[in-house]
Amino acid sequence: MMKAQHGPGGGGGGHGRRAPFMTSYALTLAFITFVSLLYFKDFSSTLHQPFLHHPPQRSHRPNVRRPRPLQLPHVATAGGATVEIVEKAASRAPERRRRLPFAVGPAAAGCDISVGEWVYDEAARPLYREEECPYIQPQLTCKEHGRPDTAYRHWRWQPRGCDLPSFNATLMLEMLRGKRMLFVGDSLNRGQYVSLVCLLHRAIPESSKSMETFDSLTVFRAKDYNATIEFYWAPFLAESNSDDAVVHRVADRIVRGTAIEKHAKFWKGADVVVFNTYLWWMTGQKMKILQGSFEDKSKDIIEMETEDAYGMVLNAVVKWVENNMNPRNSRAFFVTMSPTHTRSKDWGDDSDGNCYNQTTPIKDLSYWGPGTSKGLMRVIGEVFSTSKVPVGVVNITQLSEYRKDAHTQIYKKQWNPLTPEQIASPKSYADCTHWCLPGLQDTWNELLYTKLFFP
């Protein structure tokens, strides 16, 4: 039997039979090599495209898609409706990954600090005493003006499932060293500003602090820190006929469209800006919008739905923030609506009263009063979700809804003499809009502190 010859040293007959196979193998190998060379050449040229060889700066990355805004849970109202707002205005994806300026630690995982309940705590509240802070306006010094009860000072906000960081005045002053922090808005924003000054001033030697007012601008200086904390009066944020910081009680309110430069020139250079605007929009009628200038002899005024006008001005503010604040070293915030408590029937009290003589918070956690506009709340969420830079939304609305007890009521300086009819019926002149200090607005600043340093 003849064996097949497979080895390389085989006879001539075996070599002759292998020749066609070797030729086919060589052709196949050559083809594969040729294709591989073409592919490698193409791949190599791709690697040398400019957009990969010279990557763009981070700030010029294209925005392929906008992430969905982080939203607060539905806020149930007394009528069963719900309201949604963004908890943080959505920003571009690269901005969200970048550590925010002033941050010293992360937020508690899964914690919404605006959802919780009020806990009575005489040991931890108030954070300062009224008589210790000389910066509180006489409109807010309730104890000095005879308020007999004290419980309104001792309520502490307890978020559900987590705790607010302890307010550390020294830490905040150090983080603001060489910086400028600015509150912009109406008298409610000014109350929050004064609250923050009261929270900080005890950590500053008496000779190293001062407060001065220049027309619409109030400046508190912490001289050892080369820091200022300021308030700028602009109740609509845009130019209006209510811009005088002293004489601004105008019944026929007019806003000059998106014109904010008159005010915004004072905002430039601020490292932290805290905006608010709400109360002055609640006229119960359409808003009057001036098309031209207040100096024009003939005024071109149109009327707009309040929500549309509100959104128009907030969009102008967002554009200003995008163009004037560097997200690498500055922060912007917007504080949501401050509620009123003008009718006790709204929270189930049939006494036909209001906030006067109220001494405890509302216990119904679903309570949402009719004085707080759900429509404007939605506008806040929609507008700030479009911002190209992060804008922190400080949601103080729901937690403040519960505090029917915290208003100044009748315990404040009265700018006009009271009539005999008013004196006979204290509820008739009770202020159910503004808040006693110390009190609720200190909690607003605890939320702001948390979002600034533990975002």
TrEMBL record:
Coiled coil: none annotated. Keywords: Disulfide bond, Glycoprotein, Golgi apparatus, Membrane, Signal-anchor, Transferase, Transmembrane, Transmembrane helix. It comes from the Eukaryota. Residues 164-450 form the Trichome birefringence-like C-terminal domain. GO terms for molecular function: xylan O-acetyltransferase activity. Its main location: Golgi. The chain crosses the membrane at residues 21-40. It holds the Pfam family PMR5N. Residues 110-163 form the Trichome birefringence-like N-terminal domain. It is found in: Golgi apparatus membrane. It is a single-pass type II membrane protein. One of its GO terms (cellular component) is Golgi membrane. The keyword Membrane applies. Belongs to the PC-esterase family. TBL subfamily. This is Trichome birefringence-like N-terminal domain-containing protein. It comes from Lolium multiflorum (Italian ryegrass).
